[in-house]
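Entry 14. Structure prediction run on the chain below.
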Amino acid sequence: MQKIIQHIMLAAAGILALGACNKKLDIVPEGAPTTGNFWTTDKDAIAGANAMYEQFDNENFYGRGFWWFINASDDMVTGRVNGQGDNIKNFNRNFLGGSYTESQWKLRYIVIKRANDVILQVPGIEMDAALKSRILGEAYFLSGLMYFQLGYTYGGVPIVNRDSLLNDKPIPRAASADVVYAYAEKELQQAAALLPYFDQLAPADYGRAHKTAAWAYLSKMYLYKKDYANAEKYADSVISSGRHQLLDNFSDVFTIASNWSKEYIWSAYSTSQGPSGWGSILPGVMLENKGWGEYNGWGYYTPTKELYDAFEAGDKRREATILQPGDTFTFFGEEKVYSSLNSLSGYQFRKYMEPFSYANAIHLSPNGDHPTTDLNLPLLRYAEVILIKAEAKLMQGKNADAEINMIRHRAGLANVTNADMSELKKQRRCELAGEWANRHNDLVRWGDAQAAYSQPLHGYNGSVVWPARTFNPAVHNVWPVPQSEIDNGGGVVKQNTGW
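Output returned:
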């Protein structure tokens, strides 16, 4: 991925010269590039592929912006006062037009535009066949992944397929999320057919799309579609590939040394190198506000007592996931006893704190306003694939004890028999807390969000830190389309009902 970063700015400049997403409306398709100086060599193909990843460095892509949607769950609270974030968590439309989430739509359509350019242009370039296949697979993968994320966030969104690039008319929204998922399904299937396995990539190309990542996202998407047979099928494809396994120790998953471990499937590549580093800023965003005077932590997204109490006694994951007052941890080479004057709940997520443990801060960006680290943010890991298979089996009336007990065993818990969906839900919550797996989306797709959010949330001392909220599934199962897209859409793009 270092190779990608080194060439991204030059590549992005070249791609942008050919036409970027429309400044006014990001679902207006672009015409084909007209320059005769690009898309002619293998270097152009590589540059075009690298440019697809450029948006991942935007702090709102896999850093803070989208996390406001994830923050809606009962596992966490805003952490410190933030009016925009508070409105999002409370499903209050007042955040429209001015929040950190406003760019989420646009950023993903930029990736889609660049992926479409690669898919249209690279087949005509004379180049090594294996490299061409990999580059096209990356484009199909990123296109499919972006549509999957757009679909579960906003519902039916405009599908800017390759045919749409032949005209300049705005594109109306798809009828439903299922239509979007059907398109993403084809993209991800094509990606899986073209991509190599991760262990076939050179280390300089780690972070690029690969075959089991495509299968893993297909399996997850099928859960959202309630197509449980296919969810099980593609989870099995990942498992039977033999390329992945659970690490022995849960806490080791969230270490720099394990960025590319057997448990890795897809993550937000991050590095502290350079004036502002690269990649996800989430570890710094979740760190204690002002970092106890040693680093510019932001103090957002703190765990709730509800999450802490969800862990069984003896569950090793709790200590690795959450810091509570009195816990010891290592910070800049020194042992500290955790306490906070800023955390709204009194807790802090611990999963992403390993980069802050080193005495010489070699794994941290020196720019605390863009606090990247050398720890990759897990977006989908092997443990989730196992849980996807377990859920898919349960929803088909099958027994999933083997899969659930794999997860429980690593956590130090005894085996269970005849596990049901209640157990599955608990294991997803405890295994994936504070991760991109997104508990809010889980609650929505299970039909549990309304009941969960009707209860207040509590902090370490038992006091209410967030009041009960009103969640209307008819409205709040999807988020509102960014106001800028509505305002500039000429009536083509309509707002989601109720927002």
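Residues 2-209+479-487 form a domain with the Serine Threonine Protein Phosphatase 5, Tetratricopeptide repeat fold (CATH 1.25.40.390).
Filed with the rest of this week's runs.
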